[in-house]
């Protein structure tokens, strides 16, 4: 039986791409992105999914596996964190928050099954239950200058500050000043969507949310880009996704050595490509100083309001400084670079 939430989205004109990624749009992705840049949007976050972790050993269990300090996460608090290989490469990154019954982990939909299975392998005798609760809840993104006002008018309680979570039938995670993630029981999602739309929030698809994340410099690991990057390569420590004082977790030694002993050679940058077709995440990048050897990869891509595509690109710092980075080959389209909203060394 199909989820009533997905049935509703189909009824209001949402179009899903084929495949497991949950990518959706409403007919004109670039127009949706343009509205996200200047107005308030309402986005079905079907490209992300939810795992609930609960049980008396859950805090210690997650703390021992993830890159951030779960033990110190307060009730109704949220954080970025990641699950890594022993070599420190990211298998998935999450928005993690704590509510009255346990912890919720939001991750890319195309990683859900594999990560749920892999995390479950570590449970063993721990008093922890891991559940895919995606079918029970709709994840809805609301973003823009009037996002808070729209939610307030719809009767939804707002979190007091960034990386806190409001509690109630509908949970709201404030991921930055103007972006909120709503966790809504599927039976109530259509009604709430309509209330928010009637208060000026315009429906938009996955590309609009990805574009907002790109502009915020927030990475999202997907099936295409997993097992590629150490945390610092995607600025994850800058946005608060790594705690360097906590104990061991898979990949901790590599991440810590990169921070304190090694010289970081790659970073993530905001880039623009003036091309007609969307480049694929994971596409190789090239620069003259590295010849035929790739100097980096695209991580996230979305249509740009002014045309072309904006992206988060992970590449050699030396190549960024040389400002001659090309897509696909040394003869490929040239990247131009923008400014992230935070400082990287």
TrEMBL record:
<dbReference type="InterPro" id="IPR006222">
    <property type="entry name" value="GCVT_N"/>
</dbReference>
<dbReference type="Pfam" id="PF01571">
    <property type="entry name" value="GCV_T"/>
</dbReference>
<dbReference type="InterPro" id="IPR029043">
    <property type="entry name" value="GcvT/YgfZ_C"/>
</dbReference>
<protein>
    <submittedName>
        <fullName>Folate-binding protein YgfZ</fullName>
    </submittedName>
</protein>
<dbReference type="InterPro" id="IPR017703">
    <property type="entry name" value="YgfZ/GCV_T_CS"/>
</dbReference>
<feature type="domain" description="GCVT N-terminal">
    <location>
        <begin position="30"/>
        <end position="231"/>
    </location>
</feature>
<dbReference type="InterPro" id="IPR045179">
    <property type="entry name" value="YgfZ/GcvT"/>
</dbReference>
């Amino acid at each position: 039986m199909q989820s009533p939430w997905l049935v509703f989205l189909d009824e209001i004109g949402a179009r899903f791409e084929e495949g497991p990624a949950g990518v959706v749009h409403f007919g004109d992705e670039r127009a949706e992105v343009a509205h996200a840049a200047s107005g308030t949007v309402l986005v079905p976050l079907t490209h992300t999914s939810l795992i609930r972790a609960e049980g008396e050993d859950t805090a210690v269990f997650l703390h021992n596996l993830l890159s951030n300090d779960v033990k110190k996460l307060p009730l109704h608090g949220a954080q970025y964190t990641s699950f890594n290989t022993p070599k420190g490469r990211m298998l998935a990154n999450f928005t993690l928050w704590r509510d009255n019954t346990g912890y919720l982990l939001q991750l890319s939909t195309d990683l859900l099954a594999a990560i749920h299975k892999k995390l479950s392998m570590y449970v063993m005798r721990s008093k922890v239950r891991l559940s895919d609760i995606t079918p029970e809840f709709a994840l809805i993104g609301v973003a823009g200058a009037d996002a808070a006002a729209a939610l307030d008018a719809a009767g939804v309680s707002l979190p007091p500050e960034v990386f806190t979570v409001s509690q109630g039938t509908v949970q709201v995670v404030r991921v930055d000043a103007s972006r909120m993630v709503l966790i809504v029981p599927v039976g109530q999602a259509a009604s709430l969507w309509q209330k928010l739309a009637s208060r000026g929030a315009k429906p938009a698809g996955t590309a609009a949310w990805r574009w907002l994340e790109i502009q915020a410099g927030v990475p999202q690991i997907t099936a295409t880009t997993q097992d590629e990057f150490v945390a610092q390569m995607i600025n994850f420590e800058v946005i608060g996704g790594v705690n360097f004082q906590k104990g061991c977790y898979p990949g901790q030694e590599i991440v810590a050595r990169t921070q304190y002993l090694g010289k970081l050679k790659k970073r993530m940058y905001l880039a623009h490509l003036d091309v007609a077709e969307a480049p694929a995440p994971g596409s190789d990048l090239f620069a003259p100083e590295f010849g035929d050897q790739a100097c980096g990869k695209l991580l996230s891509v979305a249509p740009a309001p002014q045309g072309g595509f904006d992206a988060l690109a992970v590449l050699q710092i030396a190549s960024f400084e040389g400002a001659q980075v090309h897509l696909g080959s040394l003869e490929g389209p040239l990247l131009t670079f923008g400014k992230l909203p935070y400082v990287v060394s």
